[in-house]
């Protein structure tokens, strides 16, 4: 039986197409109160008075919560600089000041309007470079007092700095044939899943029970506990079907308000973000500045690179931006051989809404910068752009910038596969004016966090997997993990199910992030399934009077291999085991094995290596309309190594979806900030998401280059397709118009400006010749 | 103010203000939770239902406008003895469903397309989906599913 490798239908699919799936946004309890949050309308101020007495006595109002109810300081793992409510000082437009629970939404809104707030304005610090400048006002004057999870460079408005240094960078620059320097600026991008953040909390037997569609239930549990100043195990997180996340639902967002208010009222409390609150306050991908300076030999060999990445943390470290700061150096130095490198990744406070994880974290803008930069190097050397890349690509056995040896590097194979689908030479020969082509290789990480799962066999011979893996929509839990388990147990896919995600019943799991569910949870479930299989075979061996090594399990029946009539149903084995050795069941677990790297070359690095590294190459052909500046993606090719394809159709779906999110980032998605650091694009009219009209034809090739410690060889698959997209489209646009594009997104306005600047220059130059 | 219409074939009568959104009537009065409140701005299409066969964004559609009309939701789709309708089945067969929050709306939009258009190609599918945002799939597999369902429509029953 081979279930693994087939495009099995998703187990939760029928409910979803029938409209019967009950998402977080559909979950309700009887007698639920409605919670609303009062948010700051100014970016920086001292709170002199916050008077909730009128609001508290208004009709239908059951409770008001303020900073006094949430004493804890928290943050996403590394720097604990976030309070749930602004305490004394406001640091961004949208920062919570108070929350109200009332019988109806209208009553809650009326109560918010009745809260008296008196403020003394402070000078806002909005710009990244201004924030780091000498004498800039400190956004967190008490930064030294904050708890941190590890040592790192911090100070003033520099929230965190990660550094990587290898070799002798300065000496390499001294002997370079060519030195090229570039600066790139990129925008905020919002995750914008269809389902907004929503939570229903109830206080029961001295604990908080929270229903929330989160990607990472154990993180939300820990963060609620930290913000409220309670024990982690006093919170239980139950995850209904999730209506999309893309990183935006990794972290705690609305849950703590519901928890505080349910405790105060004794009633269930529901809180649901409006679309405007989603866009204005739920951490997007950070805006950033990337500066690269590269030393190159005459033959195109990269000798050294000096890079600085300045990323916007926003007002606090509640998002993942600090935690993943060191991913920037790793991705800059993970695809090409750069023997001498010096990278600084700086995460900077500003009086703007905090930034957070979005699929690919800081990868898309680092890769965008690196690839535009390489194309410029190629142009200056007069070298073919693909040849430059192939020359410097990391081969199997060579090392990344952190000293991690990539024994299974598969970059040349990915590039070759793309070339097979759409030969580079043909794309060049067939080029027309204002058409461009580009190809980009990439090494990326599978999130290494641990996982636990358990499996029990039911009396009818079916199996139930219990875990706290979150089914974000990829199908990794409800289908991929089940395919692995069903195959290992010799059961039909429909005879294996997974119980609802619940931190009380499931083992620890590192969340639906960084393509880790099939890899991490797949490994834990496979471990449990292997133990369960051993138990079945041991009991069946006695029943069939055969050696357990001679047995196989096929379609729910244990049989002696080669002797088809000597068999017993798994259900009978379960029944026999029940009163013999006890119910059949086992727990499984997984932790990523240690990955050797050079720890001496890094400082302030929470992410030190690329676990289960995966390799890919993307190619795009674009057309630029010289009249309007509009970019059309004519053709897109992806070759991606997934280790082992558990469900090829679902992987293809991740590639197509990731590429389109990347196209949005490359061409138009831009969560702009106004003069007060407020989000301007707070509705879906002004923050445009890609539609069916924006989706180009995509050829996707899935490559299988097994990971020795992945389940059946599998590594991550879902996250990376977004990462090289802006780079490959940007480079193709640059190729089309002959100009390095230093900023994203590549809107018609910016592309047209780039074209006309050149034309203006050409006109001026013509005039000089006259 | 009372409003009468048929809901999935059954006559209904609701006493709410005329400007109440059809979506909140469906969800709060009738417990039909298939249509989703995605954006509440008529932009994402997760709330799409059919009014007299036409897809509408029910989150901004006043219930008064449904007076006397036939309102159909994902819960009311008839599959003629099959477990799923053709488009529902095709969406699963072609991998067009990920998180699925947009899918009830997508199903209704494509149901209307299949019922009204005789000739369906890539471009008619894409333009019919212009009001349905799917953040997960990149649309291709939804388009493949729609094409397959359209082909099956013309084929043997």
Automatic annotation (TrEMBL), chain A:
Xref: Pfam families: Ald_Xan_dh_C (PF01315), MoCoBD_1 (PF02738), MoCoBD_2 (PF20256)
GO molecular function, one term: iron ion binding
Domain Aldehyde oxidase/xanthine dehydrogenase a/b hammerhead intervals: 18-123
Protein name as annotated: CO or xanthine dehydrogenase, Mo-binding subunit
Automatic annotation (TrEMBL), chain B:
Residue spans crossing the bilayer: none
Pfam families per UniProt: Fer2 (PF00111), Fer2_2 (PF01799)
Signal peptide interval: none
UniProt entry keywords in alphabetical sequence: 2Fe-2S, Iron, Iron-sulfur, Metal-binding, Oxidoreductase
Domain of life per record: Bacteria
Alphabetized InterPro entries for the sequence: 2Fe-2S-bd (IPR002888), 2Fe-2S-bd_dom_sf (IPR036884), 2Fe-2S_ferredoxin-like_sf (IPR036010), 2Fe-2S_ferredoxin-type (IPR001041), 2Fe2S_fd_BS (IPR006058), Beta-grasp_dom_sf (IPR012675), Diverse_Oxidoreductases (IPR051452)
MF terms (GO), sorted A to Z: 2 iron, 2 sulfur cluster binding; metal ion binding; oxidoreductase activity
Domain 2Fe-2S ferredoxin-type: 1-77
Protein name (record): Carbon-monoxide dehydrogenase small subunit
Taxonomy of the source species: Bacteria, Bacillati, Actinomycetota, Actinomycetes, Pseudonocardiales
